[in-house]
Amino acid sequence: MGWFYGFKLHIIINDQGELVNLTFTAGNVDDRKPVKQLCDMTVFGKLFGDKGYIDKSLTAWLDEHLDVELITNVKKNMKAKDIAWLDKRLLKRRFLIETVFDELKHICHIEHSRHRSPAGFMTNLLAGLIAYCHQAKKPTLKNVLIGHSLPQVA
Known about the structure:
Blueprint: E1 7-13, E2 19-26, H1 35-38, E3 45-48, H2 56-66, E4 68-71, H3 85-92, H4 95-106, H5 118-133, E5 152-153
Parallel strand pairs: 3-4, 3-5
Antiparallel strand pairs: 1-2
Domain Transposase DDE: 1-117
InterPro entries: RNaseH-like_sf, Tnp_DDE_dom
Organism: Faucicola atlantae
């Protein structure tokens, strides 16, 4: 019998594909729980996330305490909300974060099941994140008119 470590990696990247902040949680933890910890004073402007981050109280807290606007798509059973034209365009380019996760998994090999100890798991995860940070070409957000503050992607 071997070891298995179920985890979720939560990252915030900028428009240049660079890691701004990250944390990881156990696989059974709600996606919204680590957002306040991730969004410290280094995050500003707009934060784009998937439907797992929808929460009125979280959106209000980010806006009130950090002046960060959380923008997500709506779920199928929700009413459509008004989103600015530029925010809609940027939300459609949320695939950038999925591209970063794909590179972390397949190029930097952070997702495999050969860990024989918790130390081996952490070593592999940190080595993969360091390898990603040192890549010369990262996925970037291009060809979009960007206003006064660059968006963040979650």
